[in-house]
What does this fold into?
Amino acid sequence: MKKSIILSALLLSLSSVFAQCPANDSTIMSAGSVNDVYYSFKKFSQTGNGVVTTVSNTNWHLAFSVMPSNFPNNPANGVAIRVNSPLGENAQAQTTGTNLVKLPGANANNWRNIDTTGLYALQPLYDSDSTWNLSAFTKGYKISDPFNFIWGNYNPTTHNVEGNGSVYVLYNKSANWYKKINVKEVTLDTMWHVIISNIDNTDSQYLWINKRAFQNRMFVYYNVLTNTLSLREPLMDQWDVVFTKYKGMVSMGGPKVPYTVTGVLSHPKLKVAKNIGKNCDQVSFSDMTAPYQNNISTIGYDWKVFTGMSYSMVDTFVYFVNTPDFHYYKVSMKSFKGGKTTFNVLEDQMSVEPINSAAAVKVYPNPSNGLIQVESADLLDHIIVYNAMGQAVLNSSNTVLDLQAMPAGLYHLAIYTNTGLVLSSVVKS
It folds into this structure.
């Protein structure tokens, strides 16, 4: 049976073995979760505080993608327009949020005389909570029809995504404002052209957004009441997750329905595995069972449950995070109160310095043909072998490691003993 390695509190962030997991970082969205908090796991490992930036989530209505469309692999990536649907919603104050609907029968030809009869009966359109590139405006997009983006279609001759004349209405009933929208075109995956106006044709805005002016970002944000663009999110290589309020698909005892939640959404290149059924001190990097996936709401919101007066935490959800630069982290949520979330982050040993001296362990021969001998003066617990990309390729409790079937190259060894962790490297010839 493997022995649990108990490390001091100062070394908790370095351990991936069984250990207690007290909160070691936090984010503050403030009461009512009125802020978005962008967070970096790498920043946490460097400074002990992973918060990149905190920004208001109450000053925008539409988010226009400034990402490339990536034809033909991911064409919807560059034509998404997301909606801040929770904005203005307050159950206690009985105020509604921001809704987007598509007017049946309306088109750009009758733009000045559209009929909004039955507006409130129309089904609101919501953004996907599984991927950033499927938005309220592209609701119904099918990969089987990859160049039909619902609001418009890709023209292979001009290479533009040309609007089909659809008219959308963005409104907040409680705040008594209504905006009609027609997406005219995305020109050469470079320039958005959108018309936004009051229903009575006042305050008309001809919006032009040059995507190339916003490099290394996902979206640029627009406020339809002040007619201003803003950059809210950090550069894409600076953050991993965002603590935010969004419309999630929630089951109320039946089919899932859109419901405003406060939770965590992931960077599009982040991979997250959600391990269910064990506490943080019962599961490690070496024995996680859940697969990594790119769903942006894998962490999501359901690590907490509202009890009527406060939130109780689900302590059997443990998240394993794989960042784009192949760093690995284990995350467990600890508390949620007043817009403040506390949590524990443990970085995998392949991203940190060894706990004790490598002199206590001998690894030979080096270089090797694939059969590697490990000798330790301390009691050996287990060894994890990683390739040069940081991927675990072997987990063994034997003192002889067989890498003969592995490709030639550099391999890293995380060697656990009863006194701690030793890191070593070998070259397979």
